[in-house]
Design goal:
The structure is a single chain. The chain is mainly α. Helix content is 49%, strand content 6%. The strands form 2 sheets. The chain has a 3-stranded antiparallel sheet. A 3-stranded antiparallel sheet has the order 4-5-6. Helix 9 packs antiparallel against helix 14. It is globular and about 80 Å long. The chain binds acetyl coenzyme *A. The site of acetyl coenzyme *A (ACO) has 18 residues, from helix 17. Acetyl coenzyme *A (ACO) binds next to helix 17.
Length: 431
């Protein structure tokens, strides 16, 4: 409805203000509080952004209660079934599905940007042999700013587009390089005839001395994982990318900030944490004890891969990936004791009143870790795989923000609870 408002009254002064209500295409309406400070002299207080929309966006929509996820309006289930990661990248960046010609051209552009500047390889040598691949990825992605000066004008549409193409194309090369370095193995150059996920597997596992055959089941599973992780509206890493971008930093620096934010186990680090947790549980017979520990308020242990800030019914990505997980294990004839533990954990937790009442369901990363393990990806690379998939989401959200009419630097306010104003005392007078 037009001109809807909410009236806020400060009972201590009796002063009132009418705040406009805004509606989007889907989802809850929002109260526009921009004038609150100038009119009432107050800020809002919402740690963790529990009720705060930080921006306007036309890219991704989530309904956490109904388990809905849309990329540019298309349900994730339809994209997972009929599309592929490259087409999804096109959709997220350009806002619409490509024609057959556009799709072919886009695939070609991305393939032709997959090599990194030779000088970038030197960066890897500066890391310790045992560096975590995420540590290397944060550094090397940031270092791209030093190599691609020709596209760093953030106000130029074409520069932003080239940077997006480069980031999508080079991320698997950078990620595979992090793995090869940690193994003391030669870097494998990308091959343009391979599809995106196939190319990544080739760069991860091929040797100059032998022919490498890409496993189609593994490549398809990986492509699906990239597609399911491609965007997720204003999550912690995307919000970080936007905040960094709001200061007009270059896109590579912003992406590096996003990689850092993704790393934590409460976010993208969860897929790695799931496998470590399953290894720690060790046996199906210890699952009950793990569930009890997760419910114990005095124990910091949580079931990794369970729960989500937004999905309080089910994670639609988890539903899709659960099926893919079963298919991959069957097709590759993988028998993994960790998978038995995972299935037992899923069964017990889904029946347990604690998890039911708190609406804690397995999320996408509960199953993605099991697939990645089945196709031979080492655990330390799991979050890096998430980086590859999420790059398109980060860069599309950054681009959307950069094309806003009134871009403002993001500057949260605070509720100060430190010492009241006091006078400095010379050292000799202090007790
Ligand atoms: N195991 C046990 N208890 C849990 C779990 C869990 N995995 N997740 C939440 N809870 C409990 C909390 O202890 C809390 O209980 P309380 O109300 O009695 O205090 C309640 O459920 C709500 O939890 P919050 O942490 O307040 O929920 P929030 O929305 O802030 O956190 C999060 C969501 C971070 C994902 C959380 O569920 C979690 O830590 N999960 C495990 C890590 C994980 O899988 N992260 C991946 C997220 S998906 C992604 O990034 C792709």
């Amino acid at each position: 409805m037009a001109n809807e408002t909410v009236t806020i009254t400060d009972n201590s002064t009796g002063k009132s203000i009418d705040l406009p209500i805004k509606s989007g295409t889907h989802g809850p309406r929002v109260i526009d509080i921009a004038k609150l400070q100038s009119e009432l002299g107050m800020f809002t207080f919402d740690p963790g952004f529990m009720s705060t929309a930080a921006c306007e966006s036309g890219i991704t929509f989530i309904d956490g209660d109904k388990g809905v996820l849309l990329y540019r309006g298309y349900p994730i289930e339809q994209l997972a079934e009929h599309s592929d990661f490259m087409e999804t990248c096109y959709l997220l960046w350009y806002g619409r599905l490509p024609t057959a010609d556009e799709k072919q051209k886009f695939d070609g552009i991305i393939s032709h940007h997959t090599m990194v500047h030779e000088g970038l390889h030197n960066f890897y040598n500066g890391f310790r042999r045992d560096a975590h691949p995420m540590a290397i990825t944060v550094g090397v992605v940031g270092a791209l700013s030093a190599f691609y000066h020709d596209s760093l004008d953030i106000w130029n549409d074409r520069h932003r587009e080239i940077s997006a193409h480069r980031l999508i194309a080079k991320m698997p090369t950078i990620a595979a390089g992090a793995y090869r370095f940690s193994r003391g193995e030669p870097f494998a150059y990308p091959k343009n005839k391979l599809k995106y996920a196939e190319n990544f597997l080739h760069m991860m596992f091929s040797f100059p001395t032998e022919e490498y055959q890409v496993n189609k089941v593994a490549a398809e599973a990986l492509d699906l994982i990239f597609l399911l992780h491609a965007d997720h509206e204003q999550n912690a890493s995307t919000a970080t990318v936007r905040l960094a971008g709001s200061s007009q930093a270059n896109p590579f620096a912003c992406m590096s900030a996003g990689v850092g934010a993704l790393w934590g186990p409460a976010h993208g680090g969860a897929n790695e944490a799931v496998i470590k947790m399953l290894q720690h549980i060790g046996d199906v017979k210890h699952v009950d004890k793990a569930v009890e520990r997760a419910k114990d308020k005095n124990d910091t242990f949580r079931l990794m891969g369970f729960g989500h800030r937004v999905y309080k019914n089910y994670d639609p990505r988890a539903k899709i990936i659960r099926k893919a997980c079963m298919d991959v294990l069957k097709e590759l004839k993988v028998s993994d004791p960790l998978f038995d533990i995972a299935m037992k954990l899923e069964e017990i937790a889904l029946k347990d009143p604690y998890f039911i009442e708190k609406k804690l369901y397995p999320n996408v990363d509960f199953y993605s870790g099991i697939i990645l393990r089945a196709i031979g990806i080492p655990t330390s690379m799991f979050t890096v795989i998430f980086v590859i998939g999420r790059t398109i989401g980060w860069i599309s959200q950054w681009n959307e923000m950069m094309t806003e009419k009134n871009l403002k630097i993001g500057r949260p306010r605070q509720l100060y609870t430190g010492p009241a104003i006091r006078d400095y005392e010379p050292v000799e007078k202090r007790k």
